[in-house]
Each structure stands twice: as C-alpha cells, then as structure tokens.
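Archive entry. Fields below.
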Amino acid sequence: MTHLVEIARPKRTVELTIDGQTVRVPEGTTILDACKTLGTNIPTLCYLETLHPVNVCRVCVVEVQNARVLVPACSRTVEPDMVVSTDSERVRHSRKMVLEFLASSVDLSTTPDVDGWLASYDCKPERYGPPAPDEAAGERDALPTGHHAPPNAEYAATVGQPVKVDNDLYVRDYGKCILCYKCVEGCGTDYQNTFAIAVAGRGFDARISTEFAVELPKSACVYCGNCIAVCPTGALMFKSEFDRREAGTWDESKQTQVSTICPYCGVGCTLELHVQDNEIVRVTSPLDHDITRGNLCIKGRFGWRFVQNRGPRPMGGGNGQAGGSAPRGGEAGGAGGNGAGDGHG
Amino acid sequence: MIFLWGANARENHPIFFHHVLKGVHHGTRLYVVDPRRTSSAQWADVWLGLNVGSDIALANAMAREIIHADLANTAFIEHSTTDFEAYRDLVEPYTLELAQRITGVPAEVIREAAHAYARADRAIICWTLGITEHHNATDNVLALINLALVTGHVGRYGSGLNPLRGQNNVQGGGDMGAIPNKFVGFQDVLDPEARSRFERAWNVTLQPNYGWTVTEMLQAMDRGELTSLYCIGENPAQSEADQHHAEKLLRDLDHLVVQDIFLTKTAELAHVVLPATASWCEAEGTVTNSERRVQRVRKALEPPGDARDELWIISEIARRLGHDWGSPNAEEVWNEVRALAPDMFAGMTYRRLEELDGIQWPCPDEHDPGAQFLHARLWADPVGLPKAAFSLTEYDPPVEMPDDEYPFTLTTGRRLDSYNTGVQTAGYTSPLRRGETLDIAPEDANRLDVRDGDLVRITSRRGSIVAPARIDTSLRAGLVFMTFHFQDQVRVNLLTIDATDPRSGTAEFKACAVRVEPVRAPDDVPARALHRYSDPVLGD
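PREDICTED_STRUCTURE:
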C-alpha cells in the first residue's frame, strides 16, 4: 500500500572539525547546519532555511583554517577535513563590527535575539555618536544613485524615516530595515515571483523599493505578505500588529498560537493563528510545512477578518482588563450581521 | 511537464502555483489551456486559448495526433486499459484541422502540445472549474483522463491527473459522504454490504436509494416535491445559476433552516437560523485538501454571541428528533469514520495526523505513511483490477452559443483576493479589490465605443444587469468575463444558465450568451450601482 518514492540518492558523509570537535555530516551540508548538530549557535540575520542564501549580513561569518577571508557559515558547505572556528578573536571582532554598524544605523527594537548578541560581542553602537534625526518622508527614496552627500560627523548616520502606511494590511518601517534581501527573495524567484520590490540605490543609500518608489497599492504587490513572514527585524509588519503596538496593546505574553487550515481554496495551507484577547492579530505558516514553506496568499494571510466581524465576541484568556480595548471586530460587524456582504471597493 | 487546463492557479491556488513556478524555474514546461490569457497563462511556455467549452475537441484531437504519430503508450494501453479500440475510432474524425475550427487553437499548436505531452517523461494535467462548470462536466474530465491513459501518464510519481479543489474541504465533504450517493469513504449507498455496515453501526434502517444533488433539489422544489430544506454553510440564494429562479424556489419552501456563521441572503429567507461557529478556527475537526491530505483544524477563538459548535447543533437536533447521540467530540466522530471506512482512514489517528502534519488517504493502518499518489496498481504485474476504461467522449458545445441577439460568450471565475459570493472576503479591505466589472476585449470595446469604467448593460435570456466595463487584453474578441464575488452589488448569477451536467449536477457557469450595450443615460442605472462605481479608482 506504500508508494513512497525516493527522489534523491543517499549522500556521502564528510568529516570536519568545528571548535576542536570532530563532526560527520552529509556532503552538501552548510557549516551553519553542521554547527547545529553540535549545538553551536551562530547568529544569523539574512539567512533563512527556506530562502536561497544571499550572504549579505555577514553576521554568521566563521574562520576556516587556511582561508584568506572569513566565510559565511549559512552558505559555505563543508569540505573534508575542514577546520572551523566559530568564536575566534577574528570572528568575534568581525561580528562586533557588523552588529555595531547595524545597531548604530538601524532601529533594531523589534529584532528578536539582537540584544543578546550585542551584549555577548561587547558592542557599543553609541560610540559612533548620537543617531542622526529621521529623514523626511520620501527623502531616502529620492536619493540619486552614485552621489553621496558627505556624512555629518556629529551624528551616526541612520536609515531613520517615517513608517510607510499606505494600505490596511501591512506597513513598511524602513527605519528598521537592515537590507537582508529576504523580502526581495520571497517576493521574487524563491516563492512569490511577483517582483514588486527590489533594492534601489547603492551603498548607504541602498533601500528596498517598489518600482519608482510608488505606494504599494500602485505597485505590483499582491499582498501575500510573504515578505512580512521572512522579515527578521519587524520592518515589515501586519497593520493589526502595528496598530496594537502603537496603542500599547501588543502583548506577546498574552498571545497564543494555534495551527489550523486555511478556510479558502483546497491547497490546504497550514495557518498559525496568533491570538490575543480572542482576536487574530497575526497569521503565519510554519517554515517546515511542505505545502507552504512559510508562504501564504492574500486570503490566507489577511482574509480572516470575517470571523471577527460577527458582532461582540467574548474576550479571551484570563485578564481581560475592564474598559480595555474593545474587540475591533464589533465595529464592522454591525447590526444584522450581514455586514460581511456589503462595503469595500 | 504540467498542463493547467481550465485552471487559473496563479490567482485561485496561489501556493500550489508556487510549486508550479519552482518547476518552471527548473525547466518544467508549462502549458495552459484557457479561453483567457490568465496570469497563470502568462507564465506558460504555451498558451492554448481555446473557445469556451471546446475542451473535448481539443483533447480528442490531441489523442488522435498522439495515436497517429505512434506516440501512444501501447504497452500501458494493453496492460492496463480497456475499450481502446472504440476510443481510437471515436477520436479518428477529430483531425487537427477540425479541432482548429472548433477550438480556435492553431492546428500546429495542438500538434505540438500533443507531441510534448506524449513524449514527456513525467506529465500531469491539473484542472479546475474551467473543466467542470459545464453542462458536460463529467465528459470534460473523462476526456482528460483519456489523454492520460493514451500516454500512460498516470499512477507514477510525477505523472497523473489532479483536480485542484476550490474549497478547503470540498474533498473532505465527499470523503465523509456529504454527497447524495455515497457513505463515508465512497461506499455506495446501493451496495447492500456497505449499507448493512452502517445500519449496524448506527442502529437504523437506511434507504437503498440515492439522494439529490443541489441542482436536483432545486428541480424537486420546482416540482413541489421538496418542501423543506436544511442548509448548512451554503448560500444558494446567491451562488446558484439563474438566480431569480433559485431565489423564488427558496422563498416558496414550507420550511427553510439555515445554519451559517453569517446572516447570508439565503439566511434572510429562512424560517429558522442557527448561528454556527467558523469551523476552521472556532471548532475542532479535520479537512481534506486537494492532495487527499487529511489535516487538523483547531479551535483558536471563542465564537461570538449565541454561535454554537456545529457538532453540538447537529447532535441536539438529533436528540430533539428522538435520537440520543450523546455529545460526541470531534475526535470521537473521527474515530467512528476510521472504524466505518477502515480502508481509507483506519491509520489516521489524531495523534498521527498531528505528528505527520496530515496524512494522504488511503491509510489503512497505523504504520502506513499514506499515499503520495493513486493508481499505481495500473503498473503492477499482474495489473490491479479493475483496468482503466477509456470513455467515449464526444464534443458537445455549450448549451448557449453566441448568436445575433446575444453575440458574446460570458464566462465567470474568481479573482485572487476574493472568494465565491464574497461573504467571507468582503470582511477584509483588499487594496486589489476593484468591485465587479465586465471584462471585455479591446476590439469589442472599441466596436461598442466603450471605454474603461463606462457602465454597460449585460443581458442574457434570463436577466439583465449593469456593471462598469474593464478593458482586458487577456480576452479575445467575443468573450467577456465577470466574477460572482459581489452579488450584493452586481448579480452576475441573474445571467448564468442552469443547464447542468446530469452526472455531477454542476451548472454551466462558464458559458452563457449575452448582449452588451453601453449605458448612456444615467437614469437607466440603479442609484446603488452609480453610487458604488463612483469610486475614483475606476477612473484610472
């Protein structure tokens, strides 16, 4: 009755040394994955197991004996008898520099794990000076390629700028963008193949942009949110999360995650519903789910609001404070409950 | 090689299409058969832009070409199929030239597609409603199956036939026996052995006859034979073809019960409305996706107001009708399914469904990983019985072909951000949404002197509606397109025809004849429509 088909040949194994420990892994394994088998943690920002590595953040670099330069652990594959150091002075110095530059120029306040890394590599981003004031809306988008204004030594240069809020589904806060390319890859050939965004500009002026920096509703964007799903810094964020953060009602400690199946087409995408106060506040899909690989379409990602448009709902789990945030669904549901059928152009 | 036949997966199955694109980037050839040059077709190596409803002529001509070019898989045909000779005789008149006349696809393109399909190492044909929403839906499907049988592209890894399911549990509904002729696990109602199995389990006597499909129910209402209806999670007042008629039938019922999460248009006609939970996030259970994968849905939210779990509602109705089912939970119901259809589901415990992230049926025991694909028995030696039979599928044009009075063919479908009658998707604000439009080819628009956004009146033999025109270069002259997502504003199903496939009960939503006229005088338009389409976006 079993029809499982092997579609790849078994692989040979390769022996190498990581931080003095010998390890044997299948050929083709990355240094990063080999490290994981030993329980060695390496910081990563632009790496994601579901995307092609682009090697841009340089935070995962390790030292390979007899190699001229440090190598990115996320994409370099193991070789027989390789000798790898993940925590040498050279590695630590390099990571410290990268993290300091990022922390001095980008708002990392919603980047998971980064505070721990900054501490463990003894980073002092403040030594580059106080952060430069945010630029006005659209200013960075208008920077011409190839002409860089001389930096103002008083401040640490930053990518600070106002948040782009141009639709009801998600926001783009490029003051938090580290240019990891993940969104570009997810929108491009890795998954979505919509190509709504790319990197514009060069050097410190580089930024993620729609074509001619138009607003999202005028761009090729199809609102699958697969860019949000891979963003490591919170630069791309559900509007529902953004609004709650603005209102001070975003509280991950009160959130539960339940996995279920999308209510729309028959593909059967797993949805991970992030629920706070009995409301869905964010929807993701597991990276290791072999249907979605973490991706969804606009309906799966954002099309859930109808369940909350059905009049008042009981508040969820525990300490629903009196007079607190009214369930947002209440306003749209409206009398009679057939609000779902009308409105919206 | 992938054939997308009557399927616009780019918009309607976007995550499936990610996998298609992965293949395309790795050299898979993509052929798209669709009257419209859809966003899926834009990714294709070859787009076969056939006339609506001419699919069988195309399939038969491909088969004839494959046979004549000596590309038929004769070993497979002999080993695994029956009725090939009759099929060969049937397709013989379908020359490439005839097919070109019927389908509008150039003979050379048909020839090339036939050769490419027959020569491919592995090839699948995927289809959706472009094949099934026709008066001869079943024949359309059988014609595609014939192609797979001629070439042996079935029952092997990477080769096969794949109907892409349009709803998250349309497969599961069938699996669970929510169809008029089967019990759980596709056990036939007329099979005495199956019937007695269910009679023993449920301690009731079961009628040895088939029920009615939705379309047959509507016909029975028309005859006055069906007077009470209990409608769960469906909106026939808006989703059925020939809407005036469907609505009248529902209105004339003696008793209409609607169980839904919304007060839908159907619910507004009901005598009793039972507020239900959203099964995918307010209740526990399983759904089955397009690849036969049984997957768990889980409760994440407390339902609003008086909404109740549907299992509770149904059990309570049973109790009040004198049958005490106790108060089973979803897992207990599932375990009964496993016990009653063991060949398909016995191995799927809730624990295993969780561990394996869903299992594809059949999965008869708890050591079985599930089946990646079906019909491998056709390649076994000796062949697993029964052999696959060729079907004799003749081209039969849509019931309404365009004529002088109604010169356009109207075909309907979905768009990326919306879904069916819009009851669910209207709940969120999509920046992509532009409301209902009549999509029309540039040359037709020119001829009618209609520009983008101009209001037009669309009239069929059953009804007449007004919508703004949208000039769409993906359409060929003579073809117009609408969705059915905005039924509250533009009642597209007033136009569609309820000619149905006798075997599947599906109506011919994909083809009816209409007339399109520019609306010049504003008083010709309902105020509601004008208000709605004063949206500046349409002026772009």
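CURATOR_NOTE: The longest helix of chain B spans residues 137-151.
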